[in-house]
Amino acid sequence: MSTTAVSLSMPVVPRRRRSPEEVAAAAPVTGEKRVLLAAPRGYCAGVDRAVIAVEKALEHHGAPVYVRKQIVHNVHVVTSLEAQGVIFVEENEEVPEGALVVFSAHGVSPAVVQSAADRGLRTIDATCPLVTKVHKEAVRFSKENKHILLIGHEGHEEVEGTYGEAPESTTIVNNPEEARTVQVQDPENLIWLSQTTLSVDEAMEIVEILRARFPKLQDPPSDDICYATTNRQGAIKEIAPQADLVIVVGSANSSNSVRLVEVALEYGAKASYRVDFAHEIDETWFEGVASVGVSSGASVPEVLVQEVLLLLADYGYASVEEVVTAKEDILFSLPKELRATMKAAGDPDYKGVRSSNLL
Question: Could you tell me the pTM of the whole model?
Answer without folding.
Answer: 0.91
